[in-house]
Amino acid sequence: MALDPVVEQLIDTLNEQGLRSFEQMSVAEVREVIESFSELQAPKADLARVVDTVYPGPDGDQAVRLYIPESDAPLPVVVYIHGGGWVAGSLDVTEQPCRALAADARVIVAAVSYRLAPEHKFPAAPEDAFAALNWVVDNVADFGGDATRVAIMGDSAGGNLAAVTALRARDTGSPALCAQVLVYPVIDGTARFPSWEENAEGYLITAAAIGWFWEQYLATLEDAENPYASPAKAKSLAGLPPTLMLVNEYEVTRDECLNYGRMLTEQGVPVQVELYSGLVHGVYWMTGAVPRSAELHSAVVEFLGKQFAR
């Protein structure tokens, strides 16, 4: 399918404004540009409470923000890990999508921060993410959450960290997860599927930019073979929770996402893969600029409703 007309117009506008590819920027510039995605978002939903607190990470406290809708009964919980290439992103830039998810899915969304590269290389981010999940499970009852109904979710590099965290939870035997939601995750540091060439340039995130983000994140080339960096390298994926995989047609990482979905299915994990024609990386954060981002949001809400009702 052709590129979505709204997305095409947005890309043209950004190009006219002189937006460079991420690998051509400094780390500070990358962080500034990714924070600006909040300008592409819809108005924020109202909720009963938003609580800012911290969880104890391996290298000190990290921020966590709880989005809590009104409810008389304990609510299911979604631990959300933001994207940004492991280099950028924040609780602020993802506040609107997290509020929308909490309001529409009737869940508590616990958005967690983590140490960023290149100041903190692998395995800092996955260590923080796993600590955050355990803190949420141990403490969410204090905020009206149901610790027996917890899902993990992330987008882009956050999708990578969500997949890794689900692996670690399986490997250690706890905490139990009801589901994982992977929104166009970056899943394999060694992958070079056809989409790397087909979508190498012209769709916001270039192949060179993906490679640059991996270079900032990994401490050594050998780290790309570690399943806690590249989940597709795990010897087994059996026993992972039911999975929703959202993938866009014009993604550098499209084919590695689809391949991971096939791997999960082959190893007995219930998987729902949604491939969105005409869309590009990052649209989950573009709720005000790209109307079809609502399709991804609706798929997440519907999937979580089914999993939490089981």
General description of the model:
The chain is an alpha/beta fold and 310 residues long. It has one domain: 3-Layer(aba) Sandwich (Rossmann fold). The chain contains nine helices and eight strands. The protein has an eight-stranded mixed beta sheet, sandwiched between helices. Helix 5 (157-172) links the parallel strand 5 (145-155) and strand 6 (179-183). The radius of gyration is 18 Å and the shape is globular. It comes from Rhodococcus pyridinivorans. This is Alpha/beta hydrolase.
Write a short abstract of this structure:
By secondary structure, this protein is an alpha/beta fold.
| Distance from first to last alpha carbon | 36 Å
Provide the structure class: alpha/beta
Instruction: Summarize the main sheet.
Output: 8 strands, mixed
Topology as a string of helices (H) and strands (E):
HHEEEHEHEHEHHEHEH
Query: Helical residue percent?
Result: 25-40%
How many separate domains? 1
**Spatial sequence of strands, sheet with the most strands:** 1-2-4-3-5-6-7-8
Strand residues, percent: 15-25%
CATH class: Alpha Beta
Oligomer: single chain
Low-confidence stretches: none
Determine the mean pLDDT. 97
Number of helices: 9
What's the CATH superfamily, by name? Alpha/Beta hydrolase fold, catalytic domain
Question: How is the CATH topology named?
Answer: Rossmann fold
| C-alpha Rg (nearest Å) | 18 Å
Pfam family, one: Abhydrolase_3
Keywords: Hydrolase
Protein name: Alpha/beta hydrolase
Domain Alpha/beta hydrolase fold-3: 78-284
